[in-house]
Design goal:
Elements: E1 2-7, H1 10-21, E2 25-31, E3 35-37, E4 42-44, H2 47-54, E5 59-61, H3 67-74, E6 80-84, H4 92-95, E7 102-106, H5 118-124, E8 129-136, E9 146-153, H6 160-184, H7 215-224, E10 231-235, E11 238-242, E12 245-248, E13 259-262, E14 268-271, E15 277-280, E16 282-284, E17 291-292, H8 293-303
Parallel strand pairs: 1-2, 1-6, 2-5, 6-7
Antiparallel strand pairs: 3-4, 7-8, 8-9, 10-11, 11-16, 12-15, 13-14, 16-17
Helix pairs in contact: 1-2, 1-6, 5-7
């Protein structure tokens, strides 16, 4: 089966690897252009572009699928196109280029969480289960009929990054199986039914924590925005960022935002909320790198300073 692969971020690299290992003939890889990264803003290929180059695959870099790009794809004699987090819309003219159309691997259980950040919103909103589906791409936003799905349970310490890593593996297996079924004529797509929810792009504003909320709400928001853009609070115009948070339901004597450190070989940081305490596993103080919360706590104890996130 001769296919196009379209994708951009690291989470899509797994699918590219799986399709290559499964023996699909990858005619080309479509990805977004090089982007400036780091403090020096060095133009850097996307993770998918970097992997495609390692595999010796032809690469098409474009921020938008234009008429020119569509004509270029039409020359490839494609049986299908597999798309995973490409980061751009596929116009109607391009949808009909491959014989079997475009097959999208999407990290949610459609019709729940259509859009750019499904796993992040699933965690923030308290879903117990998430997953991935393969579906036929249409002009509507994630509206096409579904070929198959896999599910994953969201644990209390699971972040968006952890869940996407897991789903990239199970979802890539599903994508391979879907394309193989299409090739053999055995694929069946089922129309989406029921109400739907939207998952717009996560912004820096979405990652701000408010310790006057309940511990569960705060934990979900923190985990849904980790690793990007990263959960944060501002203290005296300086940002503290947090890694995963544990709920400490037995500790209810702290005011919202109040910080207490439990001394010991591995001191623990406790932060009050509207319900019970939260225990961060990692903290990034202003101007420093992310560190274990116990290391940060030792520094606070040594300096004898008092910190509050109220």
């Amino acid at each position: 089966m001769r296919i196009l692969f379209a994708g951009t971020p690291q989470v899509a690299v797994t699918s590219l690897n799986y399709l290559h290992e499964a023996g699909f003939e990858i005619a080309a890889v479509l990805t977004r252009p090089d982007a400036p990264l780091g403090r020096k803003r060095v133009l850097t290929p996307s993770p998918v572009a970097a992997r495609a180059e390692e595999l010796g695959l032809p690469i098409i870099k474009t921020a938008k699928i234009t008429d020119e790009t569509t004509a270029q794809l039409a020359q490839l004699n494609l049986d299908a196109a597999a798309i995973v987090a490409y980061g751009g819309l596929v116009p109607e003219a391009a949808l009909s280029v491959p014989t079997h159309g475009w097959i999208n691997l999407h990290f949610s259980l459609l019709p729940d969480w259509r859009g750019a950040a499904p796993v992040q919103h699933s965690i923030i909103n308290g879903d117990d289960i998430t997953g991935a589906v393969t579906f036929q791409l249409e002009t509507g936003l994630d509206t096409g009929p579904v070929f198959g799905q896999v599910t994953e349970r969201i644990g209390e310490l699971d972040t968006a990054g952890i869940m996407l890593d897991r789903l990239s593996e199970s979802g890539s297996t599903l994508l391979v199986q879907t394309l193989q079924a299409l090739d053999s004529g055995q694929a069946v797509a089922i129309t989406q039914a029921g109400s739907h929810t939207y998952a717009p792009k996560i912004t820096d504003v979405d990652a701000e924590l408010d310790f006057t909320r309940t511990a569960t709400e705060i934990r979900r928001r923190a985990h849904g925005t980790t690793p990007f853009p990263g959960a944060w609070v501002k203290v005296d115009d300086k940002r503290f960022k947090f890694g995963p948070l544990r709920e400490r339901r037995e500790i209810t004597d702290l005011d919202a935002g109040e910080v207490r450190i439990e001394p010991g070989k591995q001191p623990k940081v406790l932060i009050g909320t509207a319900t019970w305490a939260l225990e961060p596993t990692q903290i990034q103080p202003p101007g420093k790198k992310m560190m274990n919360a116990s290391d940060w706590a030792r520094g606070v104890l040594t300096q004898g300073t008092k910190v509050s996130f109220a």
